[in-house]
Amino acid sequence: MFRKKKKLLLASIAVLIVLMIADIWTKQFYQIFEQFGEQFVNEQKTYNYSKAHPDATADSKHELTVDRKSIEHVLLTGVEGDISVKRTPESVIRLQYTVTAKANDQNEANRKRDAVQVEKKVENGQLTFVTLVDGKPIGSDSITTDYVLLIPDQLKLSVESEEGSILIDGIHGDVNVKSTHGLMDVSNTVGTVSVDTASENVYIDGITGDVHLVSHSSEVNLNRVAGNVTTDVHQGSIFLTQIKGDVTGVFESSPSYMREIAGSVKVEGQYSDIQMDQIRGAAQIVSHGGTTRLVLSKDVGYTLRASVDGGAIQSNLPAKQEASDDNKVQLNRTIGNGTWPVDVDAESCTIIIHSN
After folding, report:
1. Chain centroid, CA 312 distance in Å
2. For residues 159 and 166, is the Cβ–Cβ distance under 8 A?
3. Kind plus residue range of the DSSP H or E element containing 250
4. Which residues pair with 76 in a beta bridge?
5. Alpha helices, DSSP H only, in 79-225?
6. Of 97, 178, 305, 354, which has the most beta carbons under 10 Å away?
7. Helix H or strand E encompassing 2
8. Collapsed DSSP state (helix, strand, coil) of residue 355
9. Under 8 Å CB-to-CB from 115, ≥6 apart: which residues?
């Protein structure tokens, strides 16, 4: 009996010793793991900081020239960097570009800079400039390439940019611009201008020709256009002034302001505020949600027909509002000599009419 108790006691002591050893080993393991983890985190932080704060910079300037001969279309694509395009009286197409590379040491910065090359390719009348790094499409945020493109008249121009500003000035030819981020400025251009943008700020001014705009999350100013304007605006805003042509388009969750329009207006607003002033043409407005505000001068003359379902009409006109058979609120009124018809069909919104 005593031997059995002694064996049981010894077994219990052995188990306790094993547990103590296991506990000590476990604590040491976690201490080693934590030290390794801290070291890894610190190294990662150091790498991220070094990447964000490079110590060395290397840059170089280059130029390419191409005789225009049979070229009809020029395409320039940029990823990181600014693009400037201007008109030249020369008969050659000239691309000047500056490469800037950043790294933690000078040798690496020099290597990155020297790896950048802009290639030119001519096919079916189109001249394409492509920027490559070690023969591959550029994709490093430590390398920027800024471009200045000089092109003669009567060439079609296409510019695409993922990151950086775009400045196009004085071009005589059709222009296509696509941008996903950065400032855009297109001015003093003779020809059709087509813009597809998600840039923060877009300024288009002094265009002799039609303008086609697709905009996402952008603030657009469109001024002094001698031509027609079509718009498709989403999640942004647009200001149109001094348009000598027709305006058509859709505004989705995007406030729009139109002033001094010399042609007809046909627009649709979806949850967007719309304001019009000094419209000298027939206007047709369809609005779902938001506020539609019209300034209709007696000196110009308008024939107003406004109708809203599930909303209200506010006006300083002496005309009396009426309710239709389907409970829509209506306001019909001749302002001045009634030259231009203005039709507003709205739902779940407020129509405000100012007349002076």
Report:
1. 35
2. yes
3. strand 247-252
4. 129, 159
5. 106-114
6. 97
7. helix 2-52
8. strand
9. 133, 134
By mean pLDDT, which of 25-29, 86-90, 243-247 is the weakest? 25-29
Residue type, 241: T
Tell me how long the chain is.
356
Dist. CA 61–CA 38, nearest whole Å: 44
* Residue 316, C-beta contacts closer than 8 angstroms, at least 6 positions apart: 353, 354, 355
Asked if 243 contacts 303 with a C-beta cutoff of 8 angstroms, the reply is no
Per residue in 336-352, pLDDT (tens digit) is 999 999 999 999 999 99
What DSSP assignment string belongs to 155-188? -EEEEEEEES-EEEES-BS-EEEEESSS-EEEEE
**165 within 8 A of 81, measured Cβ to Cβ:** no
Q: Which amino acid is at 221?
A: N
Side chain identity at residue 300, one-letter code: V
Q: Can you tell me the distance from the alpha carbon of 277 to that of 138, in angstroms, rounded to the nearest whole number?
A: 47
b/e string for 87-100 if b means 16 or more Cβ within 10 A?
Answer: beeeeebbbebebb
Q: Is the pLDDT of residue 134 over 50?
A: yes
- Residue-wise pLDDT for 75-121, tens only, equals 999 888 999 999 999 999 999 999 999 999 999 999 999 999 999 99
